[in-house]
């Protein structure tokens, strides 16, 4: 089945020096399958026009496609209504929209975990300086799992918003979000989840979770780059100020005032990435065809295999939680004698295996633990055990140099 | 110190090519970081090393280990060769511009001597010709 799926991805069929591409950087971006590429191409060739504005048949066609995608996304994540779906360009924009739109006041407290991507850390530090909000960083427990007791302690002191990563891009660890939301509700705190590494990999239902906001990226789930979604509960969105204002975010304007558009249009100022949005709709259909059962199972098998094999190579330390069961498709590690960047380049140049090296936009975690950097292997459902074996074999060869 | 060699090579190619100008700039920053002992993301030095060792890993993994371990030594040797050959190239170009031959003492040995220089049999420019 995987080989049939792989044929749908032209990007994955490339070769370099006679070696097939082995793509293990899915936590950064995922390639687009043919249905997505064809849909975007069709838009660009056949109805490339001004959506939401032009009263032409092309303009209406785009409006219909965007509405269709909005509905698809809403059903995909279990939202109550498509109105609760705002198209953004990535998770960072979604988080910033909430951070700035909540109009937090001086002294109000925002809690984040200690493994947040910079997209869910820096904006709060900026608001700390600009508005005097208080940023609370909740440390993980010694086994690198989330500290629920610590969360309750902080909630008792008063927290306006709990903004945490759903599944971490650092080590794939999925936080106990149901418990987090339940606890936050008890103390009237809002909850926002960074769903960039969660939504593409397992079923998410925002209504069942009861979360207030969820942001995720399309380019991590086989949609074109520059696509993303912010889900917000309608009651919350009604109180949120837009991040950007401009064309199509207003019903009417005069020189001295304006009338804002309805939700979600008021949060989507300017011409949108219509090709990307259409591609996002196709990507969701593709994921539904593959099925989350298969995705979860495949990622776990790959993670388990890679973790087991890496443990047999000396000098390797894992980043984050140790148990592959809690890590989704991500294995993050470093070697005591070889720089992670160099290791990643060697994998690329010697075996056409693509990984990511560095601090993965979670610099804070690395700085707090004195870890220089690491190499991250992030799989998706189209990766195979064969590819994992190639990775291990290449790693052994490269690490044999030191 | 491969960055230094890379900088020289890319800077020369960069006279003619925009791609190499970008690489020359990256190599320059790499050199700057090396001399000020600052860490890099993936510097051009690491990328070049990766390409060379990666190539060897595919073909001669025995040599890959040597090159990886002594890469800095090989880099310095390569830098020295590059600097020396750059010096002689510039010197040759200067002589050609001035005397029409890259080797005024033995113009017949220079591939690009002008006919006039060959006929004149230009001797060492620091001594007067015996005419």
Automatic annotation (TrEMBL), chain A:
InterPro entries: Aminotrans_V_dom, Aminotrans_V_PyrdxlP_BS, PyrdxlP-dep_Trfase, PyrdxlP-dep_Trfase_major, PyrdxlP-dep_Trfase_small. Residues 22-391 form the Aminotransferase class V domain. Pfam families: Aminotran_5. Signal peptide: none annotated. GO terms for molecular function: cysteine desulfurase activity. Keywords: Pyridoxal phosphate. It catalyses: (sulfur carrier)-H + L-cysteine = (sulfur carrier)-SH + L-alanine. Its cofactor is pyridoxal 5'-phosphate. Belongs to the class-V pyridoxal-phosphate-dependent aminotransferase family. Csd subfamily. This is Aminotransferase class V domain-containing protein. It comes from Candidatus Magasanikbacteria bacterium GW2011_GWC2_41_17.
Automatic annotation (TrEMBL), chain B:
Keywords: Membrane, Transmembrane, Transmembrane helix. The chain crosses the membrane at residues 73-90. This is Uncharacterized protein.
């Amino acid at each position: 089945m995987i080989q049939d799926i792989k044929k749908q991805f032209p990007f994955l069929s490339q070769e370099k020096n006679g070696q097939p591409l082995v793509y293990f950087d899915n936590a950064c971006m995922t390639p687009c399958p043919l249905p997505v590429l064809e849909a975007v191409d069709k838009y660009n060739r056949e109805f490339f026009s001004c959506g939401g504005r032009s009263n032409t048949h092309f303009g209406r066609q785009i409006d219909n496609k965007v509405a269709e995608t909005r509905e698809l996304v809403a059903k995909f994540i279990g939202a109550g209504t498509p109105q609760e779906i705002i198209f953004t360009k990535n998770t960072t924009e979604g988080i910033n929209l909430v951070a700035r739109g909540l109009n937090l006041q001086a002294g109000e407290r925002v809690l984040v975990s200690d493994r947040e991507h910079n997209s869910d850390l820096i904006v709060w530090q900026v608001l700390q300086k600009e508005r005097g909000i208080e940023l609370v960083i909740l440390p993980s427990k010694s086994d690198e799992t989330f500290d629920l007791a610590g969360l309750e302690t902080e909630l008792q002191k008063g927290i306006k918003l709990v903004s945490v990563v759903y599944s971490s891009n650092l080590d794939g660890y999925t936080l106990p979000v149901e418990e987090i939301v339940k606890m936050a509700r008890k103390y009237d705190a809002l909850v926002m989840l960074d769903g960039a590494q969660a939504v593409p990999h397992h079923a998410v239902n925002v209504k069942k979770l009861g979360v207030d906001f969820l942001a995720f990226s399309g380019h991590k789930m086989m949609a074109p780059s520059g696509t993303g979604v912010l889900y917000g509960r309608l009651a919350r969105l009604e109180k949120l100020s837009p991040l950007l204002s401009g064309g199509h975010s207003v019903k009417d304007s005069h020189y001295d005032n304006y009338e804002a558009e309805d939700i979600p249009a008021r949060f989507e100022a300017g011409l949108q990435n219509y090709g990307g949005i259409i591609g996002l709709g196709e990507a969701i259909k593709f994921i539904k065809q593959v099925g989350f059962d298969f995705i979860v199972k495949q990622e776990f098998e790959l993670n388990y295999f890679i973790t087991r094999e890496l443990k047999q190579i000396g000098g390797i330390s894992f980043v984050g939680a140790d148990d592959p069961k809690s890590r989704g498709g991500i294995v993050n590690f470093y070697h005591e004698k070889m720089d992670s960047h160099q290791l990643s380049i060697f994998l690329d140049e010697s075996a056409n295996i693509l990984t990511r090296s560095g601090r993965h936009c979670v610099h804070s975690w690395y700085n707090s633990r004195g870890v220089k950097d690491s190499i991250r292997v992030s799989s998706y459902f189209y990766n195979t055990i064969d590819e994992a074996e190639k990775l291990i074999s290449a790693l052994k060869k490269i690490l044999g140099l030191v | 110190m491969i960055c230094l060699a890379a900088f020289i090579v890319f800077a020369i190619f960069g006279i003619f090519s925009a791609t190499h100008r970008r690489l020359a700039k990256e190599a320059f920053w790499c050199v700057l970081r090396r001399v000020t002992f600052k860490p890099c993301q993936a510097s051009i030095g690491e990328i070049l090393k990766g390409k060379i060792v990666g190539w060897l890993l595919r073909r001669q993994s025995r040599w890959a280990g040597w090159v990886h371990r002594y890469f800095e030594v090989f880099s310095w040797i390569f830098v020295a060769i590059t600097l020396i050959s750059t010096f002689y190239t510039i010197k040759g170009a200067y002589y050609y511009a001035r005397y029409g031959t890259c080797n005024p003492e033995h113009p017949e040995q220079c591939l690009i001597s002008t006919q006039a220089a060959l006929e004149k049999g230009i001797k060492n420019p620091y001594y007067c010709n015996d005419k």
